[in-house]
């Protein structure tokens, strides 16, 4: 595994402007002030090797289509469930903790791309957050998200785990992260030891966010194979994206690859209708047809749940409704009621939702 400092150096030296990245890639790129660039140099080299029409370029290079006003600022209704500025309590027995808004890369399709680039709503509010968790004994799982929680220093991660370990009803800890793919040098021996030191107190789950097999460098594969703290479980979350992985063969290859890395299939997300990312959006009918092919061709243990967040904050539901591939415009919500989720046209009022 890598030395503890190398990942921080890689992050410091990452490309942070369209101009410097364009010069490296010998191309021209738009400057989108609202959605800045962040790409570590090793990833930029992979983009260069793969070509400017490759799946890496399309996920991480700025694109003038991001200027479209179509879509929602807060597509899954985070703000409906914010309890402290670092905590979203949407589901009864689990809560999302946002300890940082920093990421190892800026994914152009990100469903929080408008929230992470604004001044709010996620600030530092540790004491209030811990008090809320203490007071809500129904919460048994804390899900670290962001930003990317593995960007935190070991000391900060340890501080959070120590604080949470004093709250008796919290039994499960989950980290959602793009770090294993984008910045594998972060998977250090020290971080492994840190997770392992809590394995008797919590079940720790690491959910790696990956959308295509070609994202995985040899370094990422090796670091992920070696990073196996005692008691920790690896799962995967994949976002369905037009032009990236809306192809059954690509998805089959990805889930077989993840199985070989001993990473359990967890979620295949239907893309959220996020402002600045609508060029990655695809219809539910297309998604259902793709998932149907996965269902037919993968063994059950390799099959992800296909889920969609109902806009407005109602939470995730199964995206593969049993009536067939044709989408009626309605989904069953978590109370079993039919809910219309028509695709939004440009929503002028959204521009002020986070101010
Ligand atoms: S790492 Fe995650 S939170 Fe950060 S930009 Fe990518 S998808 Fe969004």
Mean pLDDT: 91
Q: What is the rounded Rg?
A: 20 Å
* Helix-strand makeup class: alpha/beta
Helix segment count?
Answer: 12
In total, the number of domains comes to 1
Q: Do you know the CATH topology?
A: TIM Barrel
**How much strand?**
15-25%
Oligomer: single chain
Detailed description of the structure:
The protein has a single domain (73-352), classed as Aldolase class I (TIM Barrel, Alpha-Beta Barrel), CATH 3.20.20. The strands form two sheets. The protein has a ten-stranded mixed sheet with strand order 1-2-3-4-5-6-7-8-9-10. The chain has a two-stranded antiparallel ribbon with strand order 11-12. Helices cover 30% and strands 16% of the residues. It is globular. The chain contains twelve helices and twelve strands. The longest helix has 14 residues, at 284-297. With 355 residues, it is an alpha/beta fold. The structure holds iron/sulfur cluster. Iron/sulfur cluster (SF4) binds at residues 103, 105-107, 110, 112, 146-148, 178, 209.
Q: What descriptors fit this protein?
A:
single chain; binds iron/sulfur cluster; 30% helix; 10-stranded mixed beta sheet; alpha/beta; two-stranded antiparallel sheet; 12 helices; 355 residues; globular; TIM Barrel
Topology (SSEs and partners):
Blueprint: H1 6-12, H2 18-25, H3 41-50, H4 55-60, E1 82-84, E2 87-91, E3 94-97, H5 113-116, H6 126-135, E4 141-144, H7 154-165, E5 172-177, H8 179-182, H9 189-197, E6 203-209, H10 218-226, E7 233-239, H11 248-260, E8 264-269, H12 284-297, E9 305-310, E10 315-318, E11 330-332, E12 338-340
């Amino acid at each position: 595994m890598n030395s503890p400092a190398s990942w921080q150096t890689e992050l410091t030296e990452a490309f942070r402007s369209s101009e410097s990245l364009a010069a490296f890639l010998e191309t021209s790129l738009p400057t989108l002030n609202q959605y800045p660039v962040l790409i570590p140099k090793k990833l930029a080299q992979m983009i260069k090797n793969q070509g400017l029409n490759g799946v890496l370029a399309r996920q991480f290079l700025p694109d003038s289509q991001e200027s479209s006003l179509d879509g929602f600022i807060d597509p899954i209704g985070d703000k409906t469930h914010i309890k402290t500025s670092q905590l979203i309590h949407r589901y009864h027995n689990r809560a999302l903790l946002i300890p940082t808004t920093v990421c190892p890369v800026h994914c152009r399709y990100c469903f929080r791309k408008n929230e992470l680039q604004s001044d709010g709503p996620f600030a530092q509010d540790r004491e209030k957050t811990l008090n809320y968790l203490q007071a809500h004994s129904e919460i048994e799982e804390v899900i670290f998200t962001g930003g990317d929680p593995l960007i935190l220093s070991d000391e900060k991660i340890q501080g959070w785990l120590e604080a949470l370990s004093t709250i008796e009803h919290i039994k499960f800890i989950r980290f959602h992260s793009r770090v294993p793919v984008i910045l594998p040098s972060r998977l250090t021996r020290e971080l492994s030891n840190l997770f392992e030191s809590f394995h008797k107190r919590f079940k720790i789950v690491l959910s790696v966010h990956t959308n295509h097999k070609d994202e995985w460098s040899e370094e990422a594969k090796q670091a992920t194979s070696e990073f196996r703290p005692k008691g920790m479980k690896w799962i995967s979350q994949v976002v369905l994206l037009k032009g990236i992985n809306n192809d059954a063969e690509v998805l089959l290859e990805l889930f077989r690859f993840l199985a070989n890395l001993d990473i359990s299939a967890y979620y295949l997300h239907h893309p959220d209708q996020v402002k600045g990312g609508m060029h990655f959006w695809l219809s539910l009918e297309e998604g259902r047809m793709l998932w149907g092919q996965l269902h037919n061709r993968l063994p059950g243990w390799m099959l992800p749940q296909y889920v969609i967040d109902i806009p407005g904050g109602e939470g995730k539901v199964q995206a593969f409704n049993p009536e067939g591939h044709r989408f009626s415009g309605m989904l069953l919500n978590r109370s079993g009621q039919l809910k219309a989720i028509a695709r939004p046209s440009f929503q002028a009022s959204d521009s002020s939702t986070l101010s």
